Amino acid sequence: MFFFFGLLTALVTGVFSVHVVQKLCFPYFWKDVLFLMKIIRYGIRLEIFKWTSKVVTVIDTFVQQAERIPSKTFLIYEGVTYTYQDINARSNKVANVFLEQGTIKKGDSVALLMNNEPDFICVWFGLIKLGCSVAFLNTNIRSRSLLHCFNCCGAKTLVVGADLIESLDDILNSLQEDRITVWVMKKESVRTEVKPLLDKIQQASDKPTSPALRATTSLKEPTLYIFTSGTTGLPKAAVITHLQSLKAAGGFWAYGGSQDDVVYIPLPLYHSAASLLGIGGTIVLGATCVLKKKFSASQFWNDCRKYNVTIFQYIGELCRYLCHQPKAEREKEHKLRMGVGNGLRPDVWREFHLRFGDIKMCELYGSTEGNLCFMNHVGKIGAVGRSNVFYKLLFQYDLVRYDMVRDEPVRNRMGFCQHVKRGETGLLLSKVGPTSPFFGYAGSKELTEKKLMRNVFANGDIYFNTGDLMAEDAEDFICFKDRVGDTFRWKGENVATTEVTDVLGLVDFIQEANVYGVEVPGSEGRAGMAAVIVKPEFEFSGKKLFNHVFQELPAYARPLFIRLLESMEMTGTFKQQKFNLVKSGFNPSTICDPLYLLDYSEKSYVPLTDTLYDSILAGEHKL
């Protein structure tokens, strides 16, 4: 009797001891295991597709959901509800219009230039049902950049929203010369070179097109092209395959989403976050989404209460705007339980929790074209993701030393990169392999090759260069530190410094320009700044420069600050030096060179005074 009692006591003590050790040494063990099991389960499904060649795509899943839950609300837009069957039927109409026209066929690429609205989704789905790949065009880009996008993805057809047709005025002739057919979402068109689409959709049949048209036997087939800014100066068309689309669509599910959730999508659909994760994630869950044409901080909480929103998508800037709103009595009266996004600063994160309640913020990391994703499923403030020994077995990534002055990775005598120590900041590289392929960019092998690093740790190995500086702490949490190279992020958009430099170079008085991003206290990302050398025979003109960038660049890419230099500092390899410029910022009291600020009220670049500088830091002067 005493023997069995002693044995039971020892067993209980042992189990308790193991539990204590696990809590102290491996506090996230079970959370990691359970989360990883979900990821593996989803991954096995994708592997089955590879072996059977019976790929169930996101659009296939949507059609299945429309058959299973036809009367359930899929989309709410400006107070109007659309069921799964409503969107399915209207996308069938779109498909049938183009099928009857006979102008596009399976395998073609079609460009889509539309703001957030239900027909964005209907046109997107309708084209996919025909077996086309769809190129999402950024609604902010204009003229030269817009024309470049067609060349990248090979699109010969463009569908444009009714409110964006005027943005094509400068390039309609060029589009005609390139034999690109333009359709506008209107019942009639005053331009002979633009065909109305809305009247034809209303008259078309909503009979489903043949599933064979949209069917694919390979996960590696492209389904979308999403444009990103890069070091080349012009937008790059990232190839989005069915594999990437399916992976992204599983995001909400992996974080614990269900069919009962209502997802709030205030981000632009031409971005992968809103389209792949937001719309795709809603479909996989069989849930409902609330689509906003444009984010509004003043309407956010009223919308959440009105539509019983439970999940919302964010970028860090969005949460900061919400925190800067005047405090209200009903701030914590809502059903929000989870936010999914990226770029949330720790200070904003804490303030968000303090003001609006215990909402689980699910940070994630992953570029549109990248082959690696981190997910902070634990919810630790300040981390963009979490790794562990199991994750590292499936996805190989490394942090390597980076020389900020030379703007390049550090290599040893053998020519190989060097690992950073735990807790140190390094350049994030992701190994390219069967479980983490890199599909690159459409239209240029050179652009794809530029994102790859070879012979990193051994001869013959290949890594995707994320261009991001990260750090991994002792508990395996991944923290974002900065971007390197010729891209920075502002207002939720990536800005290619080379593109801005090329635009500035067209101004008659500018001899040379060096564009970079600078930190602005209290703001997300980095604000655009340009160091400029004025030609000897000219004078700087703030009004002329303002008019030029206003015409040629989207708002987020326009340099907010200008710094006039006598000469440009160069690296040993004759590259423009950015490090010291970035480090010195835009403080007129510490910089001897003339500084100017973009001023929309004056429609000019005006001298940046100490008073203006202080008002920017105080948040009184909005950038």
Automatic annotation (TrEMBL):
Annotated GO MF terms: long-chain fatty acid-CoA ligase activity; nucleotide binding
Q: Where in the cell is it found?
A: Cell membrane
A Pfam family reported for this protein in Swiss-Prot or TrEMBL:
AMP-binding_C
Task: Give the AMP-dependent synthetase/ligase domain ranges.
Answer: 63-384
State the annotated membrane topology for this chain: Multi-pass membrane protein
UniProt keyword list: Cell membrane, Fatty acid metabolism, Ligase, Lipid metabolism, Lipid transport, Membrane, Nucleotide-binding, Signal, Transmembrane, Transmembrane helix, Transport
Task: Extract the signal peptide range.
Answer: 1-17
Q: Is Signal one of the keywords UniProt gives this record?
A: yes
Q: What class of enzyme is it?
A: ligase
Q: Which GO terms describe its cellular component?
A: plasma membrane
What's its EC? 6.2.1.3
- InterPro entries per the UniProt record, alphabetical: AMP-bd_C (IPR025110), AMP-bd_C_sf (IPR045851), AMP-binding_CS (IPR020845), AMP-dep_synth/lig_dom (IPR000873), ANL_N_sf (IPR042099)
Instruction: Please list the residue ranges annotated as the AMP-binding enzyme C-terminal domain.
Output: 500-575
Main localisation, per the record? membrane
Write down the chemical reaction(s) this protein catalyses: tetracosanoate + ATP + CoA = tetracosanoyl-CoA + AMP + diphosphate; a very long-chain fatty acid + ATP + CoA = a very long-chain fatty acyl-CoA + AMP + diphosphate; a long-chain fatty acid + ATP + CoA = a long-chain fatty acyl-CoA + AMP + diphosphate
Reply yes or no: does the keyword Oxidoreductase apply: no
Superkingdom, taxonomy of origin: Eukaryota
The alphabetized list of GO BP terms reads:
lipid transport
What does the sequence similarity comment in the record state about its family?
Answer: Belongs to the ATP-dependent AMP-binding enzyme family.
Protein's name in the database: long-chain-fatty-acid--CoA ligase
